[in-house]
Amino acid sequence: MAKIYTDYFLDEEDFDKNHFRYKKLSIPDGVEAKPLAVPPVLKPDKVSGNDVWYTIESIESKVQLLPGKATKTWGYNAPILGKTMVLKRGQHVHVKLKNSLPELTTYHWHGMEVPGPITDGGCHAPVYPGEEKEIEFTVNQPAALTWLHAHPCPSTAAQVWMGLAMGVVVTDDQEAKLPIPKNYGVDEFPVILQDRTYHKDNQLDYRADYDAMGILGETPLINGTIRPYIDVTTQKVRLLFLGGSNRREWRLHFDDDIVMTQIAGDDSFLPHPVKMTKIMVTPGERLQVVVDFSGYHEGDVVNLYTDDFKLIEFRIHHFEKDDSIIPDTLFEPKLPEVDPDLPVRKVTMDEHNMMNNKQFSMQRIDMKQKVGQAEYWDVTNTNTKEHGMIHPFHIHGTHFTVVSRNGHEPFPNEYGYKDTIPVRPGETVRLRVEFPLLGVFMYHCHIIEHEDAGMMAQIEIFDSDHPKKYHLMDMETLTKAFAEEKGIKPEDVWMPGMDTEGCGMDDATTGASQK
Question: Model-level pTM greater than 0.85?
Fold first, then answer.
């Protein structure tokens, strides 16, 4: 019988609830339970053979989240968050990026292996208000839940807070053969985990909530739904968790300690399924699990919690018996050889706003690595246990495999491809990293206020036989653009973190909540 893990793997003393102005969750008065919103699938504009065309439009809108006035929100082709984009391995994808917001934004493909820096959509790829840009890429990676979110420097946190995040699902032939739930919206549900604070007239006010240590909201927002429930009409349900919060960690468990069988992580299925009663999702991470409700009957209600707070009700209806068995082997990751003569790269996350004791600079290349060459990265969280916190470390443009944690084996559910990894205070995690495509890519803490404040750096992936030059955006240009969009002076632009970031301008932070 497979072992069942009953803890979160990480130490309780490191949990966010023990650090820095933690806020407990609560449901505002008058909010009735409602069905979990399931983002509709984004329809392509055109399909021709192996080529597919999409339009992704960033829009302003309003959503009725709470009793009273509707909340002003941003979204992708939707009032909040976005529609789920489904791509198949091997497709050549053409995307028109359309910005209908009042300020510049970018479109970052978190977990997608695309060229950098423009296609990747970090801070060097702004799309200005009223502007359209076109990108294209070929999907050449395993089945996974990746995601798209805004990533302008240093307005990432504020724009995600307004709603700019959506799921991007990659499918492949191997997943299609697996006997797992895959009927979207029936037995397969994306679960985008976020939290927000609502102010006067139910509005968001990022500036009022700003915290350099990372913003925590009091109200859970799941797929843009407050107090959701899911009608369970099949014995087994597949949940695709996405850690979409700016800072909050989600420590998930069910009533009766129902076993969750994790089948996938960030960028692939796991080599083997892992059975757990507790799962932790940090900002930027994705985890897919299958839950078997065979022990329950029509009329039962089963609850999913984070810590001691009820997040989602699962309302059990009649279902047919399901005797399918998840295979012992789901995926075989390719582990590239690392030249033993290569030095191990040392990356440190320092305080809440530095990488290798430097704050982010948009025009500085911090490291270079040869395309297609695997190397070891030792990523260290230099915070102390007494004053530190978990930093989820993310790399753009690639996936990695986890080699060790402080010289010991990775956690049991860390053996697939990942792009985001929680690193505890005082801990060093060794990664095996190989970039498949050329470009300039960011690596950073995915507590979004931390990356906005400077805990971010850049690596250039090069081919010595075909050298390239890149135009890298500068902070002065972006700040002037925010100022022009708002009809204010550049020195009056507020973008949290910029006063400490050292990106080239002082006293700036994010346009998204400028009043």
Answer: yes
